Structure to design on (711 residues):
């Protein structure tokens, strides 16, 4: 199919009435790739330090995610146990194999069965971290990797996400910036998931139904770690 | 998909006479328009984002060869494989070959209009592989063996009673007496039935809303999560995408994402936006072992530099059809090929030929709503006019219309004669019309068969205009 490659590129160049780019024209595009212009960023996402969390919370609520604020990460196992009980869910969960999540005091909830790893089709509840929360639209950003199996975000009916307040940013741009600081420019994990509320469909008569294929419930535990991380 | 675009007139006639379709289409008119208007009102930057989006797409198209080559580099570096396909046939062959190598018997599919364009389901089936659509709307129409009638809401032409009947007919394994009258029950049943299929499939095929040159990623935007299950569970992930899906960088993607969902469903952001870059990495506990991108041209490169160039900016949000009075009246199937509505009237003639699709650019009143809501500001009416010109040039226009147009053109070039005749004509018709209406009129049967023609009242526009400007019989240019 290299014939197709040549034909497609030639067709495009014919339409553009020029040959392959070289020299300055090429260098200009290379530099745009390295430092692209930033488009209009919604003002609402550019608020001051305290606000992204409030905006994040209200935007997440709009898309039917639920959220509980916790004073510190030690409180996570208890909050998870309470949530499962309140929603009549079995006291069993699949945990993302991330060091910080596994280090939580799960022993404090002896009735809770906690197993780490990718999702099993039978799992009803997953607990994962998040790389960032994006206040602009109440969106969670999750990355795949050894500590982040993608199946946990989609297969279980209930997805609980542990998010640090210090990881909540205003616009999408700020989230990409953080990722680039970690991975370098131009390189992404296998999967980047932006998740805005639980799964839904409007395919039947335009009425919105939650829980189409992905999780029916999305619950966010927001850890208020701002003081610890304040610079 | 086999085209019935040549039979548009009959298709449309059947559609307007279908009461069930009328009921279903009522939901489109209400839901989509209001929701988009609300989302737009809430984001003061919306119009600026539309401008920025248009610029990004124009820039990308003007350097598409460069960005495609760059995308190939970054995708390959991430361990993905790119398959360049000039035609639908090549794309089908590439996909079948990958499925065969994976020993696939079942293939799950996320929603993909390119999949429809290349009719991949029929091809897989003919070769002993079972394709399973997983988007709820796509699943329903697959059961019914119908094509989608909308680019983002494929089953929008159906009411829930019809869906219930289909589920009862196809899900024989489930108890007969179950309740299925509520949308929630239908959704739950589809979820349950499809769960098993995700786990069985050896290959998952998704489309792509965007391809990112900077990172070699494909991007899907969905609400159900079906696309994600389709691509993270099987051992092979195939993306089918066309060449104009490319954007240069993540910054450019941000801009387009901010207008896509708002224009489409009125959401601030769709539930799931997923970037996929290559296969599973060392240490990854899940994800596909192989990642292929089947990149389709199928006539698009020939549109570059033509009068239809700008249609390649389309991000397939569906706003143009959601706001189109013709689409509201006839639904998507009448258009007869993959893309319905205003964008279909522009794209289809380019992709399947003006001979086959020459009716479509005429399926418009030129009210201009499509262009006014299109996030990429594509001049859809102007392009339909270009197609009408081509239709005329190729003698595809019916003889009566040609004669009429020729006559009118001859008159229009002689303003004084034109005005004299219209004055006499309208005065005459004004006197002849019974109670101000005509029930039938020679040469206007196409109109009067369905509704009365109002008789002209009072002086013509031209004479009023002349009066107001104090230039009796003046030859105002009449330029639009
Ligand atoms: S033509 Fe414009 S409005 Fe229509 S689907 Fe494409 S981007 Fe959306």
């Amino acid at each position: 199919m290299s014939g197709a490659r040549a034909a497609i590129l030639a067709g495009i160049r014919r339409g553009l009435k020029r040959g392959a780019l070289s020299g300055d024209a090429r260098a200009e595009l290379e530099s745009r790739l390295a430092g692209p212009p930033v488009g209009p960023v919604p003002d609402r996402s550019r608020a001051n330090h305290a606000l992204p969390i409030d905006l994040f919370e209200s935007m997440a609520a709009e898309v039917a995610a639920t959220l509980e604020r916790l004073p510190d990460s030690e409180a996570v196992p208890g909050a998870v146990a309470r949530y499962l009980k309140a929603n009549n869910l079995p006291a069993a969960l699949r945990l993302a194999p991330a060091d910080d999540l596994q280090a939580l005091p799960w022993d404090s909830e002896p009735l809770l069965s906690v197993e780490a790893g990718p999702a099993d089709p039978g799992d009803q509840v997953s607990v994962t971290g998040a790389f960032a929360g994006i206040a602009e639209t109440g969106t969670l950003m999750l990355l795949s990797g050894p500590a982040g199996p993608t199946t946990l975000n989609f297969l279980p009916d209930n997805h609980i996400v542990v998010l640090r307040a210090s990881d909540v940013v205003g616009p999408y741009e700020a989230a990409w910036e953080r990722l680039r600081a970690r991975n370098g420019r131009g390189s992404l994990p296998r999967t980047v998931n932006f998740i805005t509320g639980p799964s839904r469909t409007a395919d039947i008569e335009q009425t919105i139904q939650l829980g189409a294929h992905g999780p029916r419930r999305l619950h966010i535990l927001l850890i208020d770690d701002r003081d610890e991380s304040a610079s | 998909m086999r085209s019935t675009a040549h039979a548009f007139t009959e298709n449309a006639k059947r559609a307007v006479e279908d009461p069930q379709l009328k009921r279903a289409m009522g939901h489109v008119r209400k839901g989509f328009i209001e929701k988009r208007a609300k989302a737009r009102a809430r984001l003061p930057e919306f119009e600026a984002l539309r401008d920025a989006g248009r610029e990004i797409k124009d820039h990308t198209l003007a350097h598409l060869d460069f960005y495609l080559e760059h995308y190939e580099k970054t995708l390959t570096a991430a361990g993905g494989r790119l398959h360049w396909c000039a035609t639908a046939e090549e794309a089908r062959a590439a996909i079948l070959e990958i499925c065969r190598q994976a020993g696939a018997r079942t293939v799950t599919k996320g929603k993909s209009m390119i999949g429809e364009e290349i009719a991949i389901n029929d091809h897989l089936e003919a070769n002993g592989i079972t394709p399973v659509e997983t988007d709820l709307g796509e699943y329903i129409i697959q059961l019914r063996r119908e094509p989608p009638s909308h680019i983002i809401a494929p089953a929008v032409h159906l009411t829930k009673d019809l869906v219930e009947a289909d589920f009862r007919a196809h899900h024989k394994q489930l108890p007969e007496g179950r309740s299925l009258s509520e949308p929630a029950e239908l959704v739950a049943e589809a979820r349950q039935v499809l769960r098993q299929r995700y786990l069985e499939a050896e290959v998952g095929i998704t489309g792509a809303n965007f391809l990112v040159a900077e990172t070699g990623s494909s991007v899907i935007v969905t609400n159900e999560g079906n696309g994600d299950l389709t691509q993270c569970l099987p051992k092979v992930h195939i993306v089918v995408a066309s060449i104009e899906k490319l954007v240069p960088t993540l910054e450019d993607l941000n801009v387009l994402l901010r207008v896509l969902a708002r224009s489409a469903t009125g959401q601030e952001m769709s539930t799931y936006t997923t970037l996929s870059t290559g296969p599973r990495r060392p240490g990854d506990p899940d994800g596909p072992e192989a990642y292929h991108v089947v990149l389709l041209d199928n006539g698009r490169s020939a549109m570059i530099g033509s009068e239809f160039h700008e249609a390649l900016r389309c991000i397939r949000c569906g706003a143009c059809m959601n706001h189109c009075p013709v689409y509201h009246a006839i639904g998507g199937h009448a258009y007869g090929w993959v893309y319905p509505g205003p964008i279909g009237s522009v794209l289809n003639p380019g992709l399947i030929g003006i001979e086959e699709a020459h009716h479509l650019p005429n399926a418009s009143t030129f009210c201009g709503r499509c262009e006014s809501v299109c996030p990429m500001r594509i001049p859809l009416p102007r392009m339909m006019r270009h197609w009408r010109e081509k239709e005329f040039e190729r003698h595809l226009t019916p003889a009566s219309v040609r004669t009429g147009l020729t006559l009118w053109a001859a008159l229009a070039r002689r303003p004084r004669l034109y005005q004299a005749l219209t004055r006499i004509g309208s005065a005459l018709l004004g006197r002849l019309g019974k109670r101000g209406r005509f029930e039938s009129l020679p040469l206007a049967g196409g109109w009067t068969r369905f509704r009365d023609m109002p008789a002209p009242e009072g002086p013509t526009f031209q004479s009023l205009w002349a009066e107001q400007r104090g230039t009796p019989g003046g030859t105002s240019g009449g330029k639009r």
In short: The pocket of iron/sulfur cluster is lined by residues B 314-320, 343, 374-376, 378 (CB under 6 Å). Chain A touches chain B through 82 residues (CB under 8 Å). Residues 46-230 of chain A form a domain with the Rossmann fold fold (CATH 3.40.50.10420). The radius of gyration of chain A is 22 Å.
